[in-house]
Every structure is written in structure tokens, then in C-alpha cells.
Write a structure and sequence with these properties.
Elements lengths: L2 E4 L2 E4 L2 H12 L5 E5 L6 H18 L6 E7 L8 H8 E4 L5 E2 L13 E4 H8 L5 H11 L3 E7 L5 H5 L3 H17 L3 E7 L2 H8 L2 H5 L1 E5 L5 H10 L4 H11 L3 H10 L6 H22 L4 H17 L11 H9 L3 E4 L4 E4 L2 H10 L2
Parallel strand pairs: 3-9, 3-10, 4-8, 5-7, 8-9
Antiparallel strand pairs: 1-2, 6-7, 11-12
Helix pairs in contact: 1-2, 10-11, 11-13, 11-16, 13-16, 14-16
Bound molecules: adenosine-5'-triphosphate and magnesium ion (MG).
Adenosine-5'-triphosphate binds next to strand 2, helix 2 and helix 12.
């Protein structure tokens, strides 16, 4: 297992995934790539690592840019309507060219936006010109390999709910056009809200034009090697893994906090109780009816027993799976039709509840 440093923090393994992405970007764009997985498994960190290190640093050695990359994270912009959707893509600049680029490859990742002159921006804003047609025109002119990465796509759900279904569909059609139809650019879309993904997956056109890649928590070997470096004994590592599974973010929290507890076990039990309380409070606040609670308890007991919940009649459970996935207690994998706990701590919480 390799431990790297990324942005001043430890970055554990992900060798296979890094290779996968490097490889993927070397091929002709054919489909949209959906990267999905439970909350906080490291989807954003991984893709940002690949861009910054595998792509940009690798290229700098050759001096000439080989990639044109746009990274748009909807968590960093509030997107509720067409106008702020535009602002998440475009930045208005005074310029004679319709679109302008600094000419250099973007090294900073926070500039997902594409620079556009005021005149064209106005036309697009007033819907006299179609945003996506313009973007395709612009992209056609760029010689480098093009990669567009969209993070937190589920935040566009608001647009969808605000009656702008068309905009989202148009956007997805644009992604299909860039990949399958014209092979102009790679499009990678990241999300942890898979109920949204389920809607995509049930749309046969999008399903055919998409690839799906699950990024799950780290596995036991990674956690063992990592914690051995931190001088934990094997029995302590087993205990930690039993409570936290392969969640890098939970392990990092443990490393910061456990010293302040009388023992490692007490820290872990305290965390499990917090997870249990979180579930109880959620159920109370949402005033879930008995039927929903019963279904949730059944799902939780299946997860405790088998590690996951599966039902042929998913439609009978989708309401409760959706609710608990939205608050990231459960994780629904629509590609494999499996529901798990969002992380191992919730399984411990289910056990405390006696599910
Ligand atoms: N391979 C790793 N090694 C060490 N820490 C990691 C690793 N992957 C992620 N982390 C840490 O876990 C935390 C969550 O990562 P990140 O935000 O990338 O997850 P995510 O899957 O994008 O989450 P979300 O579902 O909220 O979008 C970060 O603090 C990050 O530093
Ligand atoms: Mg993320």
C-alpha cells in the first residue's frame, strides 16, 4: 500500500482507481462516466488527485499542455435556476473573442468556469442563444484532450424540482453529445446521491450512453497497513475496523480524537452511540409512520445479517431507502440493486438498536 501526501494530508492507496482514470482518459470519449459511492469514500479527493498529479504534473514535464480540463463542483455554487446554473459554467469577461482562455493549462482546480465575452453571455442569459451549442462550438476549437468533470450533480435536483426539468435534460443531452455522438470530450459526473442516479439509470438512453464506476470505502488491507504505520497493534486494528470499516474520514477523526477518551474501545463505542442517536432523532423529526419504521427495521436487520439489503420488489422499499439515503445513513447502489449502510458505524448503531 502506498501512502501519498496530497494537499498536506495523507492519501491512502487508490492505486487501481488512479490507473483506471489515467487509462480511461487515454481512450476516445464514448460514454459519460458516472463515479458514485457512499458519502465520503473519497470520490472528490481521488478525482482531484488524478487531475493534479497524474494529469497536470505529468504533462508539465512535457511543457506543452495535452489536456484541457474543466472541473465544476456544484457544492461550491448554489444552483437553483437557469441564471446561477450559467454562472457555475461561465465567467463574463471583457474581451473581443467569444470565448477566451489564458492559453495555459489550468493548474488551479477552482476555476471550473469558462470565460466568455459579455455580448455572448447576454445572449445566452436571455436564451437567444443556446448555451450548450455554444459550448460545443468552443470545445471543437480546442486541440488538447478535453475533460469535463462535474461534481455533486445531485445538487441540480433543486433545478429539477423548481420546474426546470428541461434544463437538466438538456445538460445531460449535452454530455451525451460530447461523448457518444461527437467524441469531443470526456465527461465525468460524481455523486453520492444515487436515488438521483437511479433516475438516470432507469432512462434507457442514458444507461446505454453511460459507464458506472463505484468508489467504495478502503478495504481491510489498506486500513491494516495504514494503522500499523501508526503503531496500532493487530487486535486494536481489528477493533477499529469492526467499528469504522474502511472509512478514511472516520479513521482520520479517530486519530485526532481517541487520545481524549479513557480507551480506544470507549471512543469507538461513543461514536456508535452517536450514530444510533442520529438515527433515532431523524426518525422522530421526520415523524415517520409505523409502516416506514417497520420497513427500515427490516432493511437494517438484513444489513446486520448479510452486510446488505436486496429485494426483488424494490418498489415496496424505495420510499424508505430514498429517505435514509438522502440523509446518508443508507447507501443505495442502483447498478447492483443493493442497499448498505453508508458506513460501518451505522451497522454498529443498528446492532445497538437490536435490529
Ligand atoms: N484515500 C484516502 N486516504 C486518506 N484520506 C482520504 C482518502 N480518500 C478520502 N479521504 C478523506 O476523506 C474525506 C472525504 O473525502 P471526499 O470529500 O473526497 O469524499 P467524497 O466521496 O467526495 O464525499 P461526498 O460523498 O461528500 O462527495 C476527506 O477529508 C479526505 O481527505
Ligand atoms: Mg465529493
Amino acid at each position: 500500500m502506498i501512502t501519498r501526501e496530497f494537499r498536506g494530508d495523507e492519501f491512502i492507496n487508490r492505486e487501481k482507481e488512479i490507473e483506471f482514470f489515467k487509462n480511461y482518459f487515454n481512450h476516445l470519449p464514448q460514454r459519460i462516466l458516472w463515479v458514485y459511492g457512499p458519502k465520503s469514500t473519497g470520490k472528490t479527493t481521488l478525482i482531484e488527485y488524478v487531475i493534479e498529479n497524474a494529469l497536470i504534473k505529468g504533462i508539465k514535464a512535457f511543457k506543452k499542455p495535452q489536456y484541457w480540463i474543466k472541473y465544476i463542483n456544484f457544492r461550491r455554487t448554489l444552483v437553483t435556476d437557469y441564471d446561477n446554473f450559467l454562472y457555475s459554467f461561465l465567467k463574463e469577461v471583457e474581451n473581443n473573442d467569444d470565448f477566451s482562455d489564458s492559453g495555459e493549462l489550468d493548474v488551479e482546480l477552482n476555476l471550473g468556469v469558462i470565460r466568455i465575452n459579455s455580448r455572448l453571455f447576454k445572449q445566452i442569459k436571455e436564451k437567444k442563444t443556446n448555451l450548450f451549442d455554444e459550448l460545443i462550438k468552443k470545445l471543437r476549437k480546442i486541440k488538447e484532450k478535453k475533460i469535463i468533470i462535474i461534481d455533486e450533480i445531485q445538487l441540480l435536483e433543486d433545478i429539477y424540482l423548481n420546474g426546470n426539468k428541461l434544463l437538466l435534460n438538456e445538460f445531460l443531452n449535452f454530455c451525451v453529445a460530447l461523448t457518444k455522438e461527437t467524441h469531443i470530450a470526456h465527461v465525468v459526473i460524481l455523486t453520492s446521491n444515487t436515488i438521483f442516479l437511479e433516475q438516470i439509470y432507469s432512462n434507457s438512453r442514458l444507461k446505454e450512453t453511460s459507464n458506472f464506476r463505484l468508489i467504495d470505502h478502503l478495504d481491510f488491507d489498506d486500513i491494516r497497513d495504514w494503522l500499523r504505520q501508526k503503531k496500532f497493534t493487530d487486535s486494536e486494528i481489528d477493533l477499529i475496523y469492526d467499528f469504522l470499516g474502511g472509512s478514511a474520514t472516520r479513521i482520520k477523526k479517530l486519530l485526532e480524537e481517541y487520545k481524549y477518551y479513557p480507551s480506544l474501545r470507549e471512543y469507538l463505542e461513543h461514536e456508535a452511540i452517536r450514530a444510533k442517536n442520529e438515527i433515532e432523532i431523524y426518525i422522530a423529526q421526520e415523524k415517520l409512520n409505523d409502516n416506514l419504521i417497520e420497513k427500515f427495521e427490516f432493511i437494517a436487520s438484513e444489513i446486520v445479517k448479510k452486510g446488505y439489503f436486496y429485494s426483488k420488489k424494490l418498489k415496496d422499499y424505495i420510499d424508505v431507502v430514498s429517505l435514509f439515503s438522502k440523509v446518508e445513513i443508507l447507501f443505495f447502489d442502483p447498478i447492483n440493486n443493493k442497499t448498505t449502510a453508508s458506513n460501518r458505524l451505522y451497522v454498529k448503531a443498528f446492532q445497538i438498536e437490536g435490529y
